[in-house]
């Protein structure tokens, strides 16, 4: 996996249709999800491939870059 | 064998999970079926088209409880609006029609009612069902069994079972619990959006609109939805467009050859989802675990249809498990590969072939030529002579 700067996703809940497409495309390990059938929004993503933003049928995912790489999961290249 | 709470715990009560549960319970296994939702099938992420054959093959009686409207054939359009029609009312008038003694070719079902109906049938066959229960994880044990962790109304519960069935749909986490490679390539997941509308006439046909102009990487559709309603939707592949599905649906409705037909449409529901136009997972099993339905990417890569394959796959999974468990065969160290082999021979090999056809079309970078190929392939796929008619 690439060593991108981690990102924190934001979901515009008003447009989200809870379809789960972002989760299906996501290369993270199990559990990088929210209670609303979307990718997680409460912790940074260290892969930062942004495929979820591309797939979303209503274009409602955005992100901000964050500084701290998360060391809690094995996909992390640290 | 050490004692277990259940022979089989099935995560997800969609069509795949409920069908697996029904056949497994009928075969005498002790089955627990769980789903995290409060109302199955909602929010709807499906157009609900399924053939009568697919229902009957797994013993589902077409019931008014879940049928929106009967279907008698297909109309496939090219990018400019020319169409090929396969209307079974005129192709085989003695068999298909709405008159007494004749039958429909298929149905558009209401997924909320369909999923609830299938769950009820599983319960009546003896399966236990827990709603508001989320699967959290599982751990194979040294004694050859496994534990599965559930969260039910905020209470964590750990159960011992012989096999966990992942029937948790497109966003499947169960395969990932076992470290299986389940995420779909961006070039193979169609982002879909659909509107249920009033004010659009339909003619008992599933209408499929091809053409890069309207749905790059996928296709658009107009389905009858009963009560005089219709559904207009499409799916696109993100790498073939800079715009989301919603933008394309808006364009299809206001600029395509159907713009006059859609001019008075009023939107009643907004639905969407992802459809894997992908190959089935290469590995659909792990220790004490198998996958079925969308979770295993058991979706027709040409049509995106996954209902038939979900219920057919559910029966295959249950038949396999009842035999395998009755014979007290091992459940770890690759023993469940036998499930995948059975699935491939009954369903999967054909799906791999469809995947090959689909891949050839979309690898063609010449857009007019690709449009032509997709149109011809779709027109042929739905024809009465198609070799894939029963998928
Ligand atoms: C827009 C769209 C249109 C479609 N149209 C058609 C069509 O016309 N015809 C057709 O044949 N197919 C269609 N499909 C495909 C079809 O919807 C799927 O293939 C089908 O729903 C797969 O069934 P399933 O049982 O595998 O999964 P699902 O129906 O997705 O069911 C999975 C279930 O698992 C539950 N679940 C998930 N995670 C957990 C967990 N951790 N714990 C507990 N429960 C969990 C979910 O709540 C859900 O109830 C369409 C799909 C989309 C997106
Ligand atoms: S892909 Fe978009 S609409 Fe679908 S669940 Fe994710 S954020 Fe919501």
UniProtKB/TrEMBL annotation, chain A:
Domain of life per record: Bacteria
Which Pfam families does the record associate with it?
A: Fer4
One example of the protein's molecular function in GO is: iron-sulfur cluster binding
Residue intervals of the 4Fe-4S ferredoxin-type domain:
7-36, 37-66
Q: Does the keyword Iron apply?
A: yes
Q: Which UniProt keywords apply?
A: Iron, Iron-sulfur, Metal-binding
The record's annotation in PROSITE patterns points to: 4FE4S_FER_1, 4FE4S_FER_2
Q: What is this protein called?
A: 4Fe-4S ferredoxin-type domain-containing protein
Species of origin reads Neolewinella marina
List the lineage, top down: Bacteria, Pseudomonadati, Bacteroidota, Saprospiria, Saprospirales
TrEMBL record, chain B:
GO BP field = phospholipid biosynthetic process
Q: What's a Gene Ontology MF term here? A: FAD binding
| FAD-binding domain: residues covered | 5-184
For this UniProt record, the keywords arranged alphabetically read as follows: Flavoprotein, Lipid biosynthesis, Lipid metabolism, Oxidoreductase, Phospholipid biosynthesis, Phospholipid metabolism
Is Magnesium tagged as a keyword?
A: no
In terms of Pfam families, this protein maps to: FAD_binding_3, GGR_cat
Check the record and name the InterPro entries matching this protein: FAD-bd, FAD/NAD-bd_sf, Geranylgeranyl_Rdtase_fam, Geranylgeranyl_reductase, GGR_cat
Top-level lineage group:
Bacteria
Q: Which PANTHER family match?
A: DIGERANYLGERANYLGLYCEROPHOSPHOLIPID REDUCTASE, GERANYLGERANYL DIPHOSPHATE REDUCTASE
Q: What is this protein called?
A: FAD-binding domain-containing protein
**UniProt source species:** Neolewinella marina
